[in-house]
Amino acid sequence: MPHLATDDGVKLYYEETGRGIPIVFVHEFAGDCRSWEHQVRYFARYYRCITFNARGYPPSDVPKDGERYSQARARDDIRSVLDALGIDKAHVVGLSMGGFATLHFGFTYPDRARSLVIAGCGYGAAPDKRAQFAEEAEASARRFEELTMAKAAEAYALGPTRVQHQNRDPRGWREFADQFAEHSTEGAALTMRGVQKRRPSLFDLVDRMATITAPTLIMTGDEDWSCLEPALLMKRAIPTSALVVMPNAGHAINLEEPDAFNRHLADFFHAVDVGAWPKRDPRALAPSILGGR
Q: For residues 282 and 108, which has the higher predicted lDDT (pLDDT)?
Protein backbone atom coordinates (compact mmCIF):
# COMPACT_ATOMS: atom_id res chain seq x y z
CA MET A 1 0.00 0.00 0.00
CA PRO A 2 1.44 3.40 -0.94
CA HIS A 3 1.96 5.85 1.92
CA LEU A 4 3.56 9.29 2.18
CA ALA A 5 4.83 11.11 5.24
CA THR A 6 3.52 14.44 6.51
CA ASP A 7 5.86 17.05 7.92
CA ASP A 8 5.07 15.83 11.46
CA GLY A 9 5.81 12.20 10.59
CA VAL A 10 2.29 10.80 10.16
CA LYS A 11 1.93 8.32 7.30
CA LEU A 12 -1.02 8.90 4.96
CA TYR A 13 -2.38 6.29 2.58
CA TYR A 14 -2.92 7.61 -0.94
CA GLU A 15 -4.00 6.45 -4.38
CA GLU A 16 -2.97 7.93 -7.71
CA THR A 17 -4.67 7.36 -11.07
CA GLY A 18 -4.23 8.95 -14.51
CA ARG A 19 -1.87 11.50 -16.00
CA GLY A 20 -1.89 15.23 -16.67
CA ILE A 21 -2.71 18.24 -14.53
CA PRO A 22 -3.10 17.03 -10.92
CA ILE A 23 -6.34 17.03 -8.94
CA VAL A 24 -6.21 16.32 -5.20
CA PHE A 25 -9.50 15.16 -3.65
CA VAL A 26 -9.97 15.76 0.10
CA HIS A 27 -12.69 13.65 1.74
CA GLU A 28 -15.39 14.45 4.28
CA PHE A 29 -15.61 13.22 7.89
CA ALA A 30 -17.85 10.28 7.00
CA GLY A 31 -15.84 9.36 3.93
CA ASP A 32 -12.37 8.32 2.85
CA CYS A 33 -10.55 8.02 -0.47
CA ARG A 34 -13.24 5.59 -1.68
CA SER A 35 -15.78 8.43 -1.54
CA TRP A 36 -14.24 9.93 -4.68
CA GLU A 37 -14.53 6.82 -6.86
CA HIS A 38 -17.14 8.41 -9.18
CA GLN A 39 -14.85 11.40 -9.68
CA VAL A 40 -11.63 9.43 -10.15
CA ARG A 41 -13.22 7.13 -12.74
CA TYR A 42 -14.29 10.19 -14.74
CA PHE A 43 -11.41 12.61 -14.35
CA ALA A 44 -8.54 10.10 -14.53
CA ARG A 45 -9.20 9.98 -18.27
CA TYR A 46 -7.80 13.50 -18.52
CA TYR A 47 -6.11 14.37 -15.22
CA ARG A 48 -3.72 12.97 -12.61
CA CYS A 49 -6.10 12.15 -9.75
CA ILE A 50 -4.86 11.81 -6.17
CA THR A 51 -7.01 10.70 -3.24
CA PHE A 52 -5.78 10.12 0.30
CA ASN A 53 -7.08 9.10 3.69
CA ALA A 54 -6.78 11.76 6.36
CA ARG A 55 -4.91 11.01 9.56
CA GLY A 56 -7.13 8.90 11.77
CA TYR A 57 -8.48 6.96 8.79
CA PRO A 58 -6.72 3.59 8.26
CA PRO A 59 -4.74 2.53 6.40
CA SER A 60 -3.38 6.01 7.23
CA ASP A 61 -1.86 6.33 10.70
CA VAL A 62 -4.10 6.98 13.70
CA PRO A 63 -2.00 9.13 16.09
CA LYS A 64 -3.18 8.70 19.67
CA ASP A 65 -2.37 12.26 20.74
CA GLY A 66 -5.45 14.44 20.26
CA GLU A 67 -3.26 17.51 19.72
CA ARG A 68 -2.12 16.04 16.41
CA TYR A 69 -5.62 16.60 15.01
CA SER A 70 -6.64 20.14 14.10
CA GLN A 71 -7.88 22.33 11.28
CA ALA A 72 -4.34 23.55 10.69
CA ARG A 73 -3.06 19.98 10.49
CA ALA A 74 -5.79 19.01 8.02
CA ARG A 75 -4.79 22.00 5.88
CA ASP A 76 -1.09 21.23 6.04
CA ASP A 77 -1.65 17.57 5.22
CA ILE A 78 -2.83 18.68 1.77
CA ARG A 79 0.48 20.49 1.36
CA SER A 80 2.33 17.37 2.50
CA VAL A 81 0.57 15.35 -0.20
CA LEU A 82 1.69 17.84 -2.86
CA ASP A 83 5.25 17.95 -1.53
CA ALA A 84 5.61 14.17 -1.27
CA LEU A 85 4.36 13.64 -4.83
CA GLY A 86 6.45 16.44 -6.32
CA ILE A 87 3.45 18.58 -7.28
CA ASP A 88 3.95 22.34 -7.48
CA LYS A 89 0.25 23.20 -7.65
CA ALA A 90 -3.01 21.33 -8.18
CA HIS A 91 -6.74 21.64 -8.46
CA VAL A 92 -7.87 20.92 -4.88
CA VAL A 93 -11.38 19.51 -4.37
CA GLY A 94 -12.79 19.15 -0.86
CA LEU A 95 -16.14 18.11 0.57
CA SER A 96 -17.35 19.10 4.05
CA MET A 97 -14.38 18.51 6.40
CA GLY A 98 -12.29 18.37 3.25
CA GLY A 99 -13.95 21.57 2.05
CA PHE A 100 -12.89 23.39 5.22
CA ALA A 101 -9.33 22.13 4.73
CA THR A 102 -9.41 23.23 1.08
CA LEU A 103 -10.60 26.73 2.04
CA HIS A 104 -7.84 27.10 4.63
CA PHE A 105 -5.31 25.76 2.13
CA GLY A 106 -6.43 28.37 -0.40
CA PHE A 107 -5.76 31.40 1.77
CA THR A 108 -2.66 29.95 3.48
CA TYR A 109 -0.81 28.57 0.44
CA PRO A 110 -2.09 30.63 -2.50
CA ASP A 111 0.83 29.66 -4.73
CA ARG A 112 0.04 25.92 -4.41
CA ALA A 113 -3.59 25.97 -5.61
CA ARG A 114 -4.39 25.88 -9.30
CA SER A 115 -8.02 26.09 -8.24
CA LEU A 116 -10.26 25.32 -5.27
CA VAL A 117 -13.56 23.44 -5.12
CA ILE A 118 -15.19 23.96 -1.72
CA ALA A 119 -18.28 21.74 -1.41
CA GLY A 120 -20.65 21.13 1.50
CA CYS A 121 -18.70 23.50 3.72
CA GLY A 122 -20.32 25.24 6.68
CA TYR A 123 -21.36 22.91 9.51
CA GLY A 124 -21.17 24.79 12.81
CA ALA A 125 -20.10 28.03 11.13
CA ALA A 126 -23.04 30.27 12.07
CA PRO A 127 -22.24 32.37 15.17
CA ASP A 128 -25.49 31.38 16.89
CA LYS A 129 -24.82 27.67 16.28
CA ARG A 130 -21.25 27.42 17.59
CA ALA A 131 -22.12 26.16 21.06
CA GLN A 132 -24.69 23.69 19.72
CA PHE A 133 -22.23 22.36 17.16
CA ALA A 134 -19.50 21.87 19.78
CA GLU A 135 -21.95 20.02 22.02
CA GLU A 136 -23.14 17.78 19.19
CA ALA A 137 -19.56 17.10 18.07
CA GLU A 138 -18.58 16.00 21.58
CA ALA A 139 -21.72 13.86 21.87
CA SER A 140 -20.92 12.21 18.53
CA ALA A 141 -17.36 11.46 19.63
CA ARG A 142 -18.64 9.85 22.84
CA ARG A 143 -21.20 7.85 20.88
CA PHE A 144 -18.49 6.49 18.60
CA GLU A 145 -16.44 5.44 21.63
CA GLU A 146 -19.36 3.89 23.51
CA LEU A 147 -20.98 2.04 20.59
CA THR A 148 -17.99 1.62 18.20
CA MET A 149 -18.18 2.78 14.60
CA ALA A 150 -19.78 -0.45 13.45
CA LYS A 151 -22.94 0.53 15.37
CA ALA A 152 -22.79 4.33 15.57
CA ALA A 153 -22.21 4.91 11.86
CA GLU A 154 -25.74 3.92 10.84
CA ALA A 155 -27.42 6.68 12.86
CA TYR A 156 -24.88 9.26 11.67
CA ALA A 157 -25.48 8.22 8.07
CA LEU A 158 -29.20 8.94 8.55
CA GLY A 159 -28.72 12.58 9.58
CA PRO A 160 -31.07 15.28 8.24
CA THR A 161 -28.80 16.07 5.29
CA ARG A 162 -27.99 12.42 4.52
CA VAL A 163 -31.50 11.06 3.98
CA GLN A 164 -31.60 12.75 0.56
CA HIS A 165 -28.85 10.39 -0.53
CA GLN A 166 -30.72 7.38 0.85
CA ASN A 167 -33.93 8.42 -0.92
CA ARG A 168 -32.26 9.16 -4.23
CA ASP A 169 -29.83 6.27 -4.40
CA PRO A 170 -30.53 3.57 -1.78
CA ARG A 171 -27.83 1.25 -3.10
CA GLY A 172 -25.21 4.01 -3.19
CA TRP A 173 -26.21 5.21 0.29
CA ARG A 174 -25.90 1.66 1.64
CA GLU A 175 -22.37 1.42 0.24
CA PHE A 176 -21.50 4.79 1.82
CA ALA A 177 -22.90 3.77 5.22
CA ASP A 178 -21.12 0.40 5.15
CA GLN A 179 -17.80 2.03 4.31
CA PHE A 180 -18.27 4.58 7.10
CA ALA A 181 -18.91 1.75 9.57
CA GLU A 182 -15.46 0.33 8.74
CA HIS A 183 -13.68 3.46 10.01
CA SER A 184 -11.50 3.49 13.10
CA THR A 185 -13.50 4.22 16.24
CA GLU A 186 -10.50 5.91 17.84
CA GLY A 187 -9.67 7.87 14.70
CA ALA A 188 -13.24 9.09 14.28
CA ALA A 189 -13.48 10.30 17.89
CA LEU A 190 -10.10 12.05 17.72
CA THR A 191 -10.97 13.70 14.41
CA MET A 192 -14.37 14.84 15.66
CA ARG A 193 -12.84 16.45 18.74
CA GLY A 194 -9.63 17.78 17.22
CA VAL A 195 -10.70 18.95 13.77
CA GLN A 196 -14.49 19.34 13.72
CA LYS A 197 -15.24 20.59 17.21
CA ARG A 198 -12.36 23.10 17.42
CA ARG A 199 -12.27 24.60 13.93
CA PRO A 200 -12.85 28.36 13.66
CA SER A 201 -16.11 29.77 12.36
CA LEU A 202 -16.21 30.77 8.71
CA PHE A 203 -17.75 34.05 9.82
CA ASP A 204 -14.45 34.90 11.56
CA LEU A 205 -12.46 34.25 8.37
CA VAL A 206 -14.03 36.71 5.94
CA ASP A 207 -10.92 38.90 5.71
CA ARG A 208 -8.75 35.86 4.94
CA MET A 209 -11.23 34.58 2.35
CA ALA A 210 -10.98 37.93 0.58
CA THR A 211 -7.27 37.28 -0.04
CA ILE A 212 -7.89 34.09 -2.03
CA THR A 213 -6.60 34.47 -5.58
CA ALA A 214 -7.14 30.97 -6.97
CA PRO A 215 -10.27 30.34 -9.07
CA THR A 216 -12.84 28.96 -6.65
CA LEU A 217 -16.03 26.96 -7.11
CA ILE A 218 -18.35 26.79 -4.09
CA MET A 219 -20.92 23.99 -4.17
CA THR A 220 -23.78 22.97 -1.90
CA GLY A 221 -27.01 21.05 -1.94
CA ASP A 222 -30.14 23.13 -1.37
CA GLU A 223 -31.17 20.85 1.50
CA ASP A 224 -27.75 20.96 3.14
CA TRP A 225 -29.22 23.44 5.58
CA SER A 226 -26.11 24.27 7.60
CA CYS A 227 -24.12 25.02 4.45
CA LEU A 228 -26.46 27.34 2.53
CA GLU A 229 -25.73 30.58 4.38
CA PRO A 230 -21.98 29.85 4.65
CA ALA A 231 -21.93 29.20 0.88
CA LEU A 232 -23.34 32.68 0.28
CA LEU A 233 -20.84 34.11 2.77
CA MET A 234 -17.95 32.54 0.85
CA LYS A 235 -19.37 33.66 -2.49
CA ARG A 236 -19.51 37.26 -1.28
CA ALA A 237 -16.06 37.16 0.33
CA ILE A 238 -13.98 35.36 -2.32
CA PRO A 239 -13.55 37.59 -5.38
CA THR A 240 -12.65 34.68 -7.68
CA SER A 241 -15.60 32.51 -6.73
CA ALA A 242 -18.75 31.11 -8.31
CA LEU A 243 -21.57 29.33 -6.51
CA VAL A 244 -23.43 26.18 -7.55
CA VAL A 245 -26.55 25.13 -5.61
CA MET A 246 -27.69 21.65 -6.55
CA PRO A 247 -31.47 21.11 -6.36
CA ASN A 248 -33.13 18.74 -3.88
CA ALA A 249 -29.70 17.62 -2.72
CA GLY A 250 -28.25 17.05 0.73
CA HIS A 251 -24.68 16.94 1.99
CA ALA A 252 -22.82 14.28 0.00
CA ILE A 253 -23.46 15.87 -3.40
CA ASN A 254 -20.57 14.08 -5.11
CA LEU A 255 -22.27 10.76 -4.22
CA GLU A 256 -25.90 11.81 -4.59
CA GLU A 257 -25.52 13.34 -8.05
CA PRO A 258 -22.11 12.26 -9.37
CA ASP A 259 -22.86 13.04 -13.03
CA ALA A 260 -24.00 16.60 -12.31
CA PHE A 261 -21.18 17.13 -9.82
CA ASN A 262 -18.63 15.95 -12.37
CA ARG A 263 -20.05 18.18 -15.11
CA HIS A 264 -19.75 21.25 -12.90
CA LEU A 265 -16.15 20.34 -12.05
CA ALA A 266 -15.27 19.60 -15.68
CA ASP A 267 -16.59 22.96 -16.88
CA PHE A 268 -14.77 24.71 -14.05
CA PHE A 269 -11.44 22.97 -14.63
CA HIS A 270 -11.64 23.68 -18.36
CA ALA A 271 -12.22 27.39 -17.78
CA VAL A 272 -9.33 27.52 -15.31
CA ASP A 273 -6.94 25.53 -17.48
CA VAL A 274 -7.49 27.74 -20.53
CA GLY A 275 -7.20 30.93 -18.48
CA ALA A 276 -10.85 31.96 -18.89
CA TRP A 277 -12.02 31.95 -15.26
CA PRO A 278 -13.02 35.52 -14.29
CA LYS A 279 -12.43 37.62 -11.23
CA ARG A 280 -15.45 39.53 -9.96
CA ASP A 281 -15.99 42.90 -11.63
CA PRO A 282 -15.99 45.44 -8.77
CA ARG A 283 -19.00 47.14 -10.35
CA ALA A 284 -21.03 44.09 -9.31
CA LEU A 285 -20.67 45.22 -5.69
CA ALA A 286 -22.19 48.68 -6.20
CA PRO A 287 -24.73 49.57 -3.47
CA SER A 288 -27.40 50.48 -6.02
CA ILE A 289 -30.10 47.83 -6.61
CA LEU A 290 -31.11 48.83 -10.14
CA GLY A 291 -28.03 50.77 -11.25
CA GLY A 292 -28.01 54.03 -13.17
CA ARG A 293 -26.53 56.12 -10.37
A: 108
The percent of residues above 90 in pLDDT, for the chain, comes to 91
**What order do you get walking across the sheet with 48-52 strand by strand?**
3-5, 11-17, 48-52, 22-26, 90-95, 113-119, 216-221, 241-246
Indicate the average pLDDT of the chain.
96
pLDDT at 293: 57
Q: What is the pLDDT of residues 214-225, one digit of tens each?
A: 999 999 999 999
pTM over 0.90: yes
On the CB side of 68, CA atoms within 13 Å amount to 15
